[in-house]
Task: inverse folding
């Protein structure tokens, strides 16, 4: 099937036009394409990054330069915030709460934020954007696009915090299981847990730095009010705390993994030690029984009825002597 035959996805997930003192106006894709959004004081467009129509609008009609459009459409991103011209290029990450997905497989939220235009883009459903959308529909509208950015960052953090807390609780449970002799901890559980922790950790520190950039440079650029900067600062502090918490969880999981490996090594050594003791006990017995088991003439005691009893007594004494020597050497 050719690309032309593949149906396009809806480019505009939701959008709003804002005027001072008025309720937000919900926008359609037709409003965006015909340029009707220019009459609003502020505009927020939440676009599907996988839409070809949306990509074409960004390239030809949005008024954004090529570098900005390329940054919004690139496949791989990391959290960052960069002042560019009259606005900010912002990439943030949120936990993946879609059905059948892992929360640590974090979803990217790309943004172009200026005083008059806020474009947010995502490839997969992002619950945090829906949270802010619900706020706007309910009439709780920030006074600036900087306020919308702050609300989005706060919503991303709200969704992320329970996931980080759950990881901390999970590592607590692993510690309890490791200390409980009745519980057998799976060797694959901790490596899988550490993989999830590292996936979250990968984005938290850059996200904190991105928010710090917005707090530092946003008010100077005139797009963020002091109130917006305050909310961003509080969000940054929460992300910093979560970053420190996930680092602690990572270190604890590393220690638990090392303890599990050490416990497994000690268990193996103990089993080898038991086998070595059994070998030491039965070595003299095997030698004697092997020697007396040869079918050759001249074997001592072959014609005596009490020879077998004497052999058994001698082997028993040999076993006791061997055990006594091992005990004396403190090997058992």
Result:
């Amino acid at each position: 099937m050719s690309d032309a035959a593949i149906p396009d996805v809806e480019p505009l997930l939701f959008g709003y036009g804002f005027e001072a003192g008025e309720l937000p106006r919900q926008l359609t894709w037709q409003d965006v394409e015909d340029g009707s959004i220019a009459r609003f004081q502020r505009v927020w467009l939440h676009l599907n990054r996988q839409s070809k129509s949306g990509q074409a609008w960004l390239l030809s009609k949005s008024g954004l330069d090529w570098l900005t459009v390329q940054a919004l459409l690139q496949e791989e991103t990391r959290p960052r915030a960069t002042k560019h011209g009259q606005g900010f290029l912002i990439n943030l990450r949120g936990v993946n709460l879609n059905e059948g997905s892992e929360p640590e497989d974090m979803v990217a939220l790309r943004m172009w934020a200026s005083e008059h235009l806020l474009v947010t883009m995502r490839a997969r459903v992002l619950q945090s954007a829906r949270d802010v959308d619900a706020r706007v529909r309910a009439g709780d509208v920030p006074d600036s696009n900087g306020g919308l950015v702050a609300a989005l960052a706060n919503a991303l953090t709200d969704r992320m915090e329970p996931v980080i807390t759950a990881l901390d609780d999970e590592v607590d449970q692993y510690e309890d299981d490791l200390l409980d002799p009745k519980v057998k901890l799976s060797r694959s559980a901790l490596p899988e847990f550490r993989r999830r922790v590292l996936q979250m950790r990968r984005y938290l520190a850059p996200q904190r730095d991105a928010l710090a950039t917005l707090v530092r440079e946003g008010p100077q650029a005139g797009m963020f009010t002091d109130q917006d900067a305050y909310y961003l600062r509080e969000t940054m502090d929460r992300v910093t705390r979560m970053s420190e918490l996930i680092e602690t969880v990572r270190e604890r999981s590393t220690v638990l993994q090392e303890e599990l490996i050490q416990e497994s090594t000690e268990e193996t050594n103990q089993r080898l030690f038991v086998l070595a003791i059994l070998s030491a006990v039965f070595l003299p017995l095997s030698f004697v029984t092997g020697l007396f088991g040869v079918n050759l003439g001249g074997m001592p005691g072959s014609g005596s009825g009490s020879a077998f009893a004497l052999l058994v007594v001698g082997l028993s004494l040999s076993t006791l002597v061997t055990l006594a020597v091992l005990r004396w050497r403190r090997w058992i």
